[in-house]
């Protein structure tokens, strides 16, 4: 047995937000042998049977800052050694300030719990489109960000240091399986963003990276998580459409190139050992049905 695996064997892991990413992570952790107990939270009661079938302890746990957490459910959920927070803010549907308030409530629950290590899943959407390479130190405060509330949420969780070890992962656009980029643009005409670089990460790699971080140890870092290669949107859209026989979008050259960002993953690669399964978004695995 390796030393890295023994670090987390038998530890309890809770996943707050056991959705498209979190459920896949939970199944991977259970099959990896590094833990025997994985807890997953959801706001959809019908998912509890799915969790149970996969061997995940399910918790129906709404995050309503006004009502607060149901102690009878939240206390056993947070009775863990490691917690992964994987709750997308859905900014377009979110009441301003609600997501940050949710994370402050979660941070208080973690502060009172035996949890020692936290992985907070954030987004590279925090970076502004400045037509340059984006590194972690570019955004530290909400006022520096394209998504101020996400950074406020990051900071609410990071404020648990030094009592808790916190790693913030800023994930690029999550793709793979039934999340297919061409699906969202098929048949569209005269797109003007065809020559700007993409920042994507395949779900299998996102899951693998979180597992690697848990095994290798939380490092109290903010890390960009992105596939190492950045082809253009046109290349990715056309290629993924061709895989499924969809009409590819068309592109035109704009009078002025749209602003963009190119996410740097260098800090992660220097901090942890991980070999990408899908380093190139042009080679991502897709299928119409999810697994």
What does this structure look like?
The chain has helices at 3-8, 22-32, 47-54, 71-77, 98-111, 148-158, 203-216, 233-243, 266-271; strands at residues 12-16, 37-42, 57-60, 82-85, 117-123, 132-134, 165-171, 173-175, 200-202, 222-225, 261-263. It has 291 residues and is α/β, with parallel strands linked by helices. The chain has one domain (3-174, 200-227, 261-279): NAD(P)-binding Rossmann-like Domain (Rossmann fold), CATH 3.40.50. The chain has a seven-stranded parallel β-sheet with strand order 3-2-1-4-5-7-10, with helices on both faces. The chain has a two-stranded parallel sheet with strand order 6-11. The protein has a two-stranded parallel ribbon with strand order 8-9. Helix 2 packs across helix 7 (203-216) and helix 5 (98-111) runs parallel beside helix 6 (148-158). It starts with a helix and ends in a 20-residue tail after the last helix. The model is unreliable at 1-8 (pLDDT under 50).
Concise overview:
It holds the Pfam family F420_oxidored. With 291 residues, the protein is α/β, with parallel strands linked by helices.
